[in-house]
Every structure is written in structure tokens, then in C-alpha cells.
Specification:
Oligomer: single chain
Number of strands: 15
Number of helices: 6
Largest sheet: 5 strands, mixed
Order of helices and strands: HEHEEEEEHHEEEHEEEEHEE
Shape: globular
Helix content: 10-25%
Radius of gyration: 23 Å
């Protein structure tokens, strides 16, 4: 039986189209009550705080996924660390869907400058949303044209060294808080004793979310600092100094050299 013309055309076109990309969404705010209702099971969940390093979130060095790669040679994608891009809110601009076709189809040569402009326009599409979502203050990591990935391969294993804190939802159970606290204690110690490569380390802070009746908003209060397997309560004399250092972006930079490992204090943007 002959293949329908529509199916032949669809197969030909799909050969030149970039495959579907992947994205991970973050937010630059953690006090929006509507987002807590939407994304944390009506305040029963929690919010993880991340610190970007040089504007990037890195893959886990212990669970690195090489499947994150681009199928287009000129795509501005790095599969080891991902730049954090701010989402823009407004009207999305359409692009010419035929520009990736060969000259005999498109009718003209596609220069390197055209390729660069194409990927800039693709990025704008990935990073533009309707103004009705502006309250989310979203930022994204993305691969603009990833390989065809299975649901398992699409899981992004981030570098846990970049976790800077956690905010417990105001309706989160004490049992769940206890579980997360034990994980943070363990992670705060593991990140110091692991030996892989150069790394930047900072303390992890836990916060309590509460509803402020007077302001009709969510207030976030620091409760504990997790420092190399030790939990320091907010009532401790050590807390204020360590929390101030954390708030200022201070961290420890461990660097491997031929003579051993050196350590120095740095400040992240």
C-alpha cells in the first residue's frame, strides 16, 4: 500500500526540525503566597534555595548525565553546567520555521551569522511568557535542542553543593521537617569530606514560613544553620555572625593543586 503524501512530507520535515528541548524552572522570589499554594501542596511542602556560581547551576559530578547535549552544532548549549536565564514577560515573536532547511528547499544560503541569529530567536521563544505569569519572577535552565530523551534521561541531577537553604512551608508537618533536617545535616558534612575537583562550599540555612496577619503576607524567619554536620540554632551566639556571612554570599573555595588542597574565603555575587 502506498504511503500517503502527507506522511511523506511530515517525515521529510521532521528530519530538519530541531528536537524538543528541556528546561528547569526556578523563581527569584520565595514569598509569593500564590506560588506557595500552587507548587507546595498549599504550603505543606518546602522551597529549596540555590546559589548560582558564575550565573550557572551545575550538574552533579557524582551523577553526571551526558544525555544532555544538543543535536545542533551551532546551538549555544553546554551540557555540564547551565546558565540561569531570566524569563521575559510579553509577546512572543514568531520565527521562520524553514530556515534550517537546505538551500535547495529554503532558496538561499544560511550563513553563520544567520545561524547565530536563529539561536538567539529560539532563546527568546524559550524565555518569553505571558505577562499574566510575571508574579512568578521565573528563571530557567534549558537545552534549546536536546537529543530525544527518555523520561529518565530528562531528570536533571544538580550539584547539591549549590543548595544554600530550605524554607519549610507553614503547614508542613513536624515529621517531614525532621526528615529534611536529617538530610541537610548529612549533606552539610558530606560536601566537606568529598574529594572531587575544585568546589565552592557554604553553609545551609533553614527557614520557617509563617503568615503575617498584619501584613497579609508570608514572613520568612531563619531557624538553623547547618555547618559541616553541626546544627546551630537561631538562639546560639554563633548564629548571627554565620548568618550574616551567608547573607553576604561568603563561601569557602577548595582548590586542588600539586601540593595538596588549598582553601580560601570568597564572596559570591
Amino acid at each position: 500500500m502506498a504511503t500517503p503524501l502527507a506522511e511523506i512530507l511530515r517525515n521529510k520535515i521532521s528530519t530538519y526540525l530541531p528536537s524538543e528541548g528541556c528546561s528547569v524552572s526556578f523563581s527569584k522570589t520565595y514569598q509569593n503566597a500564590l506560588m506557595w499554594s500552587h507548587y507546595t501542596g498549599k504550603h505543606e511542602g518546602f522551597c529549596l534555595l540555590f546559589r548560582s556560581i558564575d550565573g550557572h547551576i551545575n550538574q552533579s559530578p557524582l551523577n553526571y548525565n551526558s544525555s544532555f547535549k544538543t543535536s545542533q552544532q551551532d546551538s549555544p548549549c553546554n551540557n555540564r553546567n547551565f546558565k540561569v536565564h531570566d524569563v521575559q514577560y510579553g509577546v512572543r515573536q514568531s520565527i521562520d520555521g524553514f530556515t534550517l532547511f537546505p538551500k535547495r528547499v529554503y532558496g538561499e544560503e544560511f550563513s553563520s551569522e544567520d545561524h547565530k541569529l536563529y539561536w538567539e530567536n529560539i532563546e527568546k521563544l524559550y524565555l518569553t511568557k505571558s505577562v499574566c505569569w510575571e508574579y512568578e519572577q521565573e528563571a530557567r535552565l534549558y537545552t534549546p535542542a536536546g537529543s530525544a530523551l527518555s523520561p529518565i534521561d530528562r531528570i536533571f541531577h544538580y550539584d547539591s553543593n549549590q543548595i544554600a537553604g530550605v524554607i519549610y512551608g507553614m503547614r508542613m508537618t513536624e515529621d517531614n521537617k525532621k526528615i529534611i533536617r536529617e538530610i541537610l545535616l548529612r549533606k552539610s558534612k558530606e560536601r566537606y569530606i568529598r574529594s572531587e575537583g575544585n568546589r565552592i562550599l557554604f553553609n545551609i540555612i533553614s527557614f520557617e514560613a509563617k503568615f503575617d496577619d498584619n501584613q497579609h503576607s508570608i514572613s520568612i524567619t531563619p531557624s538553623e544553620i547547618f555547618d559541616c554536620g553541626e546544627a546551630i540554632k537561631a538562639i546560639s551566639s554563633e548564629f548571627t555572625e554565620k548568618f550574616t556571612s551567608w547573607s553576604n554570599g561568603e563561601a569557602l573555595y577548595f582548590q586542588h593543586t600539586e601540593k595538596g588542597t588549598s582553601c580560601k574565603k570568597i564572596t559570591l555575587d
